[in-house]
Amino acid sequence: MHTRVLTGITTTGTPHLGNYVGAIRPAIVASCQANVDAFYFMADYHALIKSDDPARIERSRLEIAATWLAAGLDPQKVTFYRQSDIPEIPELTWLLTCVTAKGMLNRAHAYKAAVDRNVETGEDADAGITAGLYMYPVLMAADILAFNAHKVPVGRDQIQHIEMARDIAQRFNHIYGSEFFVLPEVLIEEQVATLPGLDGRKMSKSYDNTIPLFAGGAKQLREAIMRIVTDSRAPGEPKDPDSSSLFTIFRAFANEAETQAFRSALEGGIGWGEAKQMLFERIEVDVAPMREHYEALIAKPADIEDILREGARKARDTATTLLLTLREAVGLRSMAKAATHASGPVATASKEKPPRFASFRDEDGRFRFRLLAGDGEELLLSEPFADPKAAGLLQKRLREPGGAGVAVEVEGQLARLRIDGELVATTPDYADTATRDTAVERLRGVLQRFATSD
Length: 454
Ligand code: TRP
Known about the structure:
By secondary structure, this protein is of the alpha/beta class. It folds into three domains: 3-193 and 314-321, Rossmann fold (3-Layer(aba) Sandwich), CATH 3.40.50; 205-297, Tyrosyl-Transfer RNA Synthetase (Orthogonal Bundle), CATH 1.10.240; 338-451, PH-domain like (Roll), CATH 2.30.29.80. The chain is built from 17 helices and eleven strands. The protein starts with a strand and ends with a helix. The protein binds tryptophan. The site of tryptophan has 12 residues, from strand 1 and helix 7.
């Protein structure tokens, strides 16, 4: 089964070496695992909470998209998109807002810290605080829940937000009486390095101590490295690698043998200037080819735009299906169905013959089944299974309440059913788009009735 891993990157600022080692590189490595279905997106709605400078927002989105692509993110493998391209996210934000306890948001660290600062300085408690900052955790919950992500890799400062997303998901599931949402789990990468910045504190934009990843080219990378603070030991004096920022950064790029060699060089008394040059050269081995790719990408923003739009299309396939179910669940339903819905959604189903599964063996002896509507219309044909039990389990899964992880994705004149990203069944290939849409609507209705009946 596929694990859906989702994370957001707030688009303010320009990526630095610490972002690369601490977030970008591990996320790209993780996205290459066979059983992972990765959703990585640019949290540009969140960026608006932090910055009201349009030029900065625009620039940062472009730089961050180009950085991730240059660093090796494969948009064929990863669903890579902009939050603001997914209208289902703000739509879901509202549905979640209406079940979120205000008291919980009062306790959010970022909001509380802003209030505390105001109180300390004798200001009105909410001076200068936008409702955007206050609602930040709900928007973030929508980012995660819109795709029913299982795992959310984030930094420690984000743990509370994931806990809130779980809380909100649980409340919604409880109030509307079904497992609509998977409860997401936080994923903290323990062994990922935190890089020290120029002054030895954690590399961070807020300390103004960063080393740029691509911006300014090799020249600025080298200049920044030359500014890293060291102690005053002269060339020839032995240096302590374990208290040296240079060594920590070097180790984050180098293999074991290279690291040992650098350690010996420091202990053997290499001058700081020379050590910095070694560090620069080692980083360049990794960064130079990516930088070349980065510059090519930045020069063609229209190509990046195309990649992100395609990502949004893929992402929306999943989110629209879920939002349809959620709208129905909260009572935002088509009025055309109101007469039959009046006595509850199940009443409709009981009038028609119920849909059913028909199992069979194909020419190759493999086990398959069809999902047939009450009137016998074929809605789905499953993938073949070597083991009849696997086919049975899948039928059971489709009948499970909640329908979590089940997505119907339209593709050409047909639609594919995926569970946790894995293709499990396909509709017939319809003659035209209108026929397909009617049939897909019917299929979604059937799946939803499975998902909401008990
Ligand atoms: N708040 C996150 C951060 O600042 C970014 C983010 C927004 C995010 N939406 C998300 C992370 C959803 C994970 C999942 O780092």
